[in-house]
Structures
1.
Amino acid sequence: MEGERKRKTYDKQFKLDAVRLIVEEGHSVASVARDLGVNENSLHHWKKKYGEDGKEAFPGHGNLKPEDAELRRLKRELAIAREERDILKKAIAFFAKHGR
C-alpha cells in the first residue's frame, strides 16, 4: 500500500557497534543517531539493553538470551514432570480402588 513504511531492522553487530560509540568512545547519542541514520530513541533503548545484558543483548528476532532459553526449557520440563506425576496418581488410585 502507498504510504506504508517498512520498519528498519538492524543486526546485533550494528547495535553493539552503535552502543560502543556512545559508551566507550564518548560520542553523544544525538551525533551517533545522525551519523548512522538511526532514531535517537532506538539508540537510548539499545544502550539501556546493553547496560542490562552486556554482550548478550540483542539475541535476534525469535531468539532468547541464554538464561531465558534455559528458563523456558526448565519450565517445559517441569510441566512434563507434573503431567507424569498426575498420571501416576490416577493410576495408583485406580489400582487401589479395583485391587489387583
2.
Amino acid sequence: MRIRMANRARRALAAAPASVRKAFYKQSSLLAANLQHPSLRAKKFGESTDTWQARVNRDSRFYFRIYGDVCEVTEIIPHPK
C-alpha cells in the first residue's frame, strides 16, 4: 500500500514534536506493509466516511482513508483522553 498525506496532515506533522514525527514515520511504514500490524491498533473510526484511526504513539493518533492501494492520511492529532 502507498501512503499519501493530505495538506492538513502535512501541516500537523510539521508542527508536531520530533518524537511524534519519528513515531509517525515508523507507524506509516508499518501501515504500508500491513494494516493489521498490532502496534497500529488500526480500527474503523467512521463507517459513513470510511475513515480509519491508528496509533502514532501513546499520546497521538492519525486518521486515514483507503482508496484501492493508496492510504491517504487526513489528520494527525493528540489523543483525546
3.
Amino acid sequence: MMSATQMRHLKLWYAGRARNWPLADYEVDELGEGFADAMLFHPQHKSVPHPLTELVPEFTASPLAALRDAIARKNQGDFRRAYDALTSGCNGCHEASGFGFNVVVRPSHNPYSNQRYEP
C-alpha cells in the first residue's frame, strides 16, 4: 500500500508543479483513499507502538486539507507549502511508527515518462 502511496505522492508533485489542478485534485483524493485503506486493512501494523488509525490522521489530515484548499484556489505557492507539510507528516508518521529509516522527499526526477502532467 505504501508503494502506491509513494507513487501518488510523486504524481501529486508533478501535477501541482505543472498547475494541472484537476490531476492534483485527483491525486490528493487517491492519497486520502490509500491512507484510509492502510488504516482499514492494517489498523495495527507489526510492532508499531500506536495504531495506524491514530497515527495516520495525526500526521496527514491537516496537510491533506491544506493541499485540497491550495488546489481549489489554484495557488501554487500554497500547494508547495502544503505538499512539503504532507511530506513532513509522512516522515513524522514513519518516525513515530519505527520506520524512520524510510525518509520521503520531493521527487527529483519523474520515472513516469508515459504521463503528461501539463494541463
4.
Amino acid sequence: MNTYAIRRLKAWQSPEEVEQVAARSKAVADSDFPQEIRWIRSYVIAEEDGSLGSICIYQASDPEAIRRHAQRVGMPADEILDVADLVVIRPDPVPETATS
C-alpha cells in the first residue's frame, strides 16, 4: 500500500457533521475496503467561508480505491497526493481533556 494525502474542500458545515461522516467513513473502509484502504488520521481545516474541510492521511492500494471509498461514503476527494516521505519533528499534540 502507498501513503496518500487527500484534500477535502468545504465538505462539512459543523463538527458534528464531521464526526458523523468520520464514523461512516471508518465503517465503510473496514467493511467494504479492508484490503484497499487504511485511514491513518485527519486534520480538520477551517475554510475561509466558515465551512470545514480536511487533509486526510490514508494508506491505499491506489488513488482509485480512495475515490471509490469517498464516493461510497458521500464525501469529496478533491485532491489526492502521493506522499513521498515523512519527516516528524514532534508527534501530534494530544488534545487536553477537561478536568473534573
